[in-house]
Specification:
Elements (H helix, E strand, L loop, with lengths): L2 H20 L2 E6 L13 E3 L12 E2 L7 E2 L1 H9 L4 E4 L23 E3 L5 E3 L5 H11 L2 E6 L6 H12 L4 H8 L10 E4 L12 H14 L10 E7 L4 H15 L5 E8 L15 H28 L6 E9 L18 H16 L4 E7 L9 E4 L2 E4 L1 H9 L6 E2 L2 E4 L2 E4 L2 E4 L1 E7 L5 E7 L6 E8 L6 E7 L18 E2 L3 E4 L2 E6 L3 E7 L1
Parallel strand pairs: 1-22, 2-5, 2-13, 5-8, 8-9, 9-10, 10-11, 11-12, 12-13
Antiparallel strand pairs: 1-17, 3-4, 6-7, 14-15, 16-20, 18-19, 20-21, 21-27, 22-26, 23-24, 23-27, 25-26
Bound molecules: alpha-L-arabinofuranose.
The site of alpha-L-arabinofuranose has 10 residues, from loops.
Length: about 525
């Protein structure tokens, strides 16, 4: 080949490579084909009695005053429409004895919380306080009973105490200030019973679960919605899936939900890495490990479909989020950590994954709501700030109970050190008023993406949106700079003849509304 022809070929190749790199991400949204509702419970929170979550986070007192619920925290959580709050744990639930937390506060029995290094829980926050909290949040109660360290009788009596319309336990409840039965829509039968909940094999837990579930009888008009502990998604995938399979096979008909846990951990368990001091390698790893959630759900769903093709049993992701090393200077057993733009992008990615599996995933709980792990709120004395993750929940609340819209996405890759993940993630829904919402996440911390969205099956004429982004991967809010990362209007969307073109900046989470 003559030299000039070779040159021309190289030039052509370079142009093609450049064009491919710049080619827009392509999304097709079928606005008239949605059949599945995105359960609002996917946007749930986890409120374990751990570290500074309940005490300081929700429940506080001045030196001279009585204990009380924090109005500021409740108000902020109402804004993001928290649909349910899982309590009292977590591992704590497997140590918790509900009778210690009812009756006059002065008479309550304190306990040393063994799994938290013996820290003393005075039990001033108990059953009635929790139910007042969820009522003020406008959320549903999700109580996890003690299996590993408790007894069938204890759990059964708690259930009866809460829900019985009449009888000795209802009388006791009335004496403690609540004559009417409480509403408790969700009931967990243990937590992580492969680990802190009794270190059981799947076979053993399945038998134990059935025994406990049998005694959670319909009380008055309340049928217990019984949730079994699912596998350890953070560990070996094969073991987690084996646990899911055993539970479905041995106890499927006795359960309404199966609660799988998965944490995004960047380093090895003993050195997870700093929440704020990290580089692109740790950013990329977080994205890659979050993508695992998609596979884990898909594989769990396949197993569940075999035993439950009608999809009656909810797949619940009762604990998810980033788990970093604790903040320097804090009690390491309190799991207190900062929250950056990386956590926000991971949250957006998770929520898109949950939405896209809405036919099986009907509930999920971020670990955890306040001051613990990937929290949406941090408190210090009587002040509080919201984290970048909070703003993602604020953006995505439009998906709650909306109809999932089938969406097809072709994204180029975000590549780091020879490994890749799709650069852009998206999910879409239509609300009761016909408004379409599309949530998009650009995982790439270095480069923006142009996204071309074709809307099929519905005429749209206006676009608006909001965006969360920041100049650096490590950007976060502090008590000195509480608004360093916050939502702003997104004006980079153009609509023309049913085609929406969006310019997503690097490391951003965007939700657009189309009418
Ligand atoms: O969220 C912190 C802990 O992580 C929970 O107590 C436990 O369920 C999980 O292992």
């Amino acid at each position: 080949m003559p030299r000039s022809a070779k040159l021309a070929l190289v030039l052509l190749l370079l142009v093609a490579v450049h064009a491919a790199a710049q080619a827009p991400v392509r999304v097709v949204v079928n606005a008239d084909l949605g059949t599945t509702t995105i359960s609002r419970h996917i946007y749930g929170q986890f409120g374990e009695d751990l570290g500074r979550l309940i005490y300081d986070g929700f429940w506080t007192k001045t030196d001279s005053g009585p204990w009380h619920l924090r109005d500021d925290v409740i108000e902020s959580l109402r804004r993001i429409r928290v649909p349910n709050l899982r309590w009292p744990g977590g591992c704590f639930s497997e140590y918790y004895h509900w009778r210690d937390g009812i009756g006059p506060v002065r008479d309550r029995r304190p306990m040393a919380v063994v799994i938290r290094g013996g820290v003393v829980e005075d039990n001033s926050f108990g059953t009635h306080e929790y139910l007042e909290l969820v009522q003020r949040l406008g959320a549903d109660a999700f109580i996890v009973g003690n299996v590993g360290g408790g007894a069938v009788e204890e759990m059964t009596e708690w259930w009866q105490y809460l829900t019985a319309p009449a009888g000795p336990l209802a009388d006791e409840r009335a004496r403690n200030g609540h004559p009417a039965p409480f509403t408790v829509p969700f009931w967990g039968v243990g937590n992580e019973n492969w680990g802190c909940g009794g270190d059981m094999s799947a076979q053993t837990y399945a038998a134990v679960y059935r025994r406990y579930a049998e005694f959670l009888r319909t009380s008055g008009n309340t049928r217990a919605f019984r949730i079994a502990a699912g596998g350890n998604g953070t560990g070996e995938e094969a073991e987690a899936l084996d646990w899911m399979e055993t539970m479905m096979r041995e106890a499927g008909p006795a359960m309404d939900g199966l609660d799988l846990h998965y944490y995004t951990v960047v380093g090895p368990w003993a050195h997870k890495g700093s929440a704020t001091d990290f580089g692109e390698r740790e950013w990329f790893t977080a994205m890659q490990r979050t993508e695992r959630m998609d596979t884990l759900i898909a594989r769990s769903s396949t197993i569940m479909d075999r035993y439950d093709p009608q999809k009656r049993v909810w797949l619940i992701i009762g604990e998810w989020g980033m788990w970093h090393d604790p903040e320097p200077g804090t009690n390491p057993r309190f799991y207190q950590q900062q929250n950056t733009m990386r956590d926000a992008v991971v949250a957006g990615l998770h929520l898109n994954i949950f939405n896209s599996h809405a036919d099986r995933v009907r509930m999920a709980n971020l670990a955890q709501a306040v001051n613990v792990l990937q929290s949406v709120i941090l408190t210090h004395g009587d002040t509080m700030i919201v984290t970048p993750t909070y703003w993602v929940f604020d953006l995505y609340k439009v998906h709650q109970d909306a109809t999932l819209l089938p969406l097809d996405i072709k994204s180029d890759a975000y590549t780091f050190d020879g490994q890749s993940v799709p650069a852009v993630s998206a999910s879409a829904s239509k609300d009761r008023d016909g408004r379409i919402h599309i949530s998009l996440v650009n995982l790439d911390p270095n480069r923006g993406r142009t996204v071309r969205v074709e809307i099929r099956g519905q005429q749209v004429s206006s676009v608006s949106g909001r965006i969360l982004t920041a100049a650096t991967m490590q950007a976060h809010n502090t008590f000195d700079q509480p608004d360093a990362v916050q939502l702003v209007d997104f004006r980079e969307g153009r609509l023309s003849r049913g085609i929406l073109t969006l310019d997503l900046p690097s490391k951003s989470v965007v939700v657009v509304e189309l009418r």
